[in-house]
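Hi there,

I know you've been waiting on this one. I reran it after we fixed the sequence typo, so this is the corrected version. Both the input and the resulting structure follow.
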Amino acid sequence: MVFESLGEKLQNALGKLKKKGKLTEKDVKDAMREVKLALLEADVNFKVVKKFINKVKERAVGQEVMESLTPGQHVIKIVNEELTELMGQKESKLELSGSPAVIMMCGLQGAGKTTTSGKLGKMLLKKGKRPLLVACDIYRPAAIKQLQVVGSKVDVPVFSMGTQDPVDIAKAAIEHAKKNSNDVVIIDTAGRLHIDENLMDELENIKAEVKPNDILLVVDSMTGQDAVTVAEKFNEKLDISGVVLTKLDGDARGGAALSIKAVTERPIKFVCLGEKLDDIEPFHPDRMASRILGMGDVLSLIEKAQANIDEKKAMELEKKLRSQQFTLDDFLDQLEQMKNLGPIDELLGMIPGVNNKQLKNLKVDDKELAHVEAIIKSMTKDEKHNPTIIDASRRKRISKGSGTSIQDVNKLLKQFKETKKMLKKFSGMEKSMKKRGKFGLPFFK
């Protein structure tokens, strides 16, 4: 869960205000003290915290809030708005004008710059672009090979010239892109163990020669305030256009995301929420603020579904649900499509009203989903379409073939039976409502 600890503490502090029918100035001050501690523990820059708390306090003790029928909700709304403001208000998009558009990637070693370059290339490819990855890290052993491997996985070509001068490689890559109709060039520059003057000069020379549309700094969000310091130094030298936060799915405390924009005045453009080459998404400050405060992120959930769920299969499934022909094959298909959306707890965290405490208690085990998949794949075609034929000997064979226990097989068959019963009830309700001239259920339109 993104910012699990910070989110839980903020939700607890603000939740106390919601329970009060009327707020006093002391109530607000007490809540803000807790919010302040939560932000400092999350490694948010202390100057940023001080300014944030003062702004919230000033608005929260105003006449409009104190005289409201729901003052607690008003304060939460203010915190949400100020968090959004802190992180940049709105999405900051890439500048893709020019032929080709040039994106220069930079950052310290270990932040995930090369992998992020590949992720960005894949994302742009999905949007109809023809990206080209450029290997300008000539110092780190196997850096060029790593980019080539990543490029082959995401189906994006890689331009390299071995260990020649990185400035010459970047210039040649632009010419190569023009000749081969590549409309976006992503330059993977050499990483640094620390801010090194010689390598920073090299970056400045590449920038002067290729005049990039965007200079993206890749930072590890788990390093907290160190990430902000790094961003400041790179920005001083290169005048970066934006930041990519990696490892946001780890135990990131939130300091980097909540401080970088305020300290550097440069937006977070993308976040990486996992290790897969699909795990990159545009950064929406308003949506992130809502997720931190447990208010959900329905828009991101819809976008994920649209990008990963096959519409034709969804229509076929609807027909099967109507005619009660839902099989274990369909169940498996839906499971695989859900896995493409990302970790289940991340998806649940996007649903309004599902807070961090509930997610903690839920404990969604991805291994259990893998067991379900293995069990269904160990069945014959007849067994998948008609589970009632699965007797004791078949259950034993299926459990052996899937590496699970007979109890696991029994549990799945029971769950599937209950699911079909529930779907039958929904179908009956929908027909009844239609007869009465009322609206049917959303997925039976």
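Quick highlight: The chain has three domains: 4-87, 101-301, 308-444.

Best,
R. S.
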